[in-house]
């Protein structure tokens, strides 16, 4: 009987962690083309600046290349691990179901925003323009023109802002991680610097919209209480 109850409780916890909440319907989320400029075009001063940043990013691969490869992971499990490391907790779906639901939901909310912008602008990626390999060759595509904005960077900055709500005592470490994940996309060769800069503005816009929703704020409070409880029980 005890084994059965244990199995049932594990199943419930697993199912709960897989839950996703739509705090804002996609049509009510910020529309990138309405508040952000188009990406720089080849031959412009902006593109020249992006090209220089691309070369600078390449120069950092010897010292920051391993981190850039690691940060290419943007699924929930990896995000929980990255942010758990900086706040001093082993975050995972099983032990932190409320936090997992919140972050999973937030990641999902960002997708239609960046997807619509990528389709609208169809910007070539650096490795396509420069015809050079990236640090993660298995993710390259000769025809996937989706450089602007950076979805990885949008998600990282958005998740960072959420984690500042959950653990303000570690705000600087959290924000540094979000910033570093964004810069890793330049170092890896998948994005221009302006793609990443735009992503941070877009993430901030999504975050502001989420904060206008009582259900989002309620989920934040539940996740925050969960984190505090786990920390105090150690």
Automatic annotation (TrEMBL):
InterPro entries: Acid_Pase_classA_bac, PAP2/HPO, PAP2/HPO_sf. SMART domains: acidPPc. Residues 1-17 form the signal peptide. Transmembrane segments: none annotated. Keywords: Hydrolase, Signal. The keyword Hydrolase applies. This is Acid phosphatase.
């Amino acid at each position: 009987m005890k084994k059965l109850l244990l199995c049932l409780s594990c199943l419930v916890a697993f199912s709960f962690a897989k839950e996703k909440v739509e705090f804002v319907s996609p049509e009510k989320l910020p529309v990138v083309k309405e508040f952000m400029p188009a990406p720089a075009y080849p031959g412009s001063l902006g593109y020249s600046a992006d090209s220089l940043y691309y070369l600078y990013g390449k120069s950092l691969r010897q010292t920051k290349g391993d981190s850039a490869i690691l940060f290419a992971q943007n699924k929930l499990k990896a995000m929980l691990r990255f942010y758990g490391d900086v706040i001093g907790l082993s975050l995972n779906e099983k032990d932190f179901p409320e936090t997992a639901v919140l972050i999973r939901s937030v990641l999902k909310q960002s997708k239609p925003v960046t997807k619509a912008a990528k389709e609208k602008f169809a910007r070539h990626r650096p490795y396509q323009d420069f015809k050079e390999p990236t640090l993660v060759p298995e993710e390259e595509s000769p025809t996937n023109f989706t450089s602007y904005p950076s979805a990885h960077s949008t998600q990282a900055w958005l998740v960072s802002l959420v984690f500042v709500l959950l653990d303000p005592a570690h705000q600087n470490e959290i924000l540094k991680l979000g910033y570093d994940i964004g810069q890793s996309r330049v170092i890896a060769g998948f994005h221009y610097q302006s793609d990443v800069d735009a992503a941070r503005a877009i993430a901030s816009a999504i975050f502001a919209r989420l904060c206008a929703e009582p259900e989002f704020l309620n989920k934040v409070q539940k996740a925050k209480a969960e984190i505090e409880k786990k920390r105090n029980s150690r």
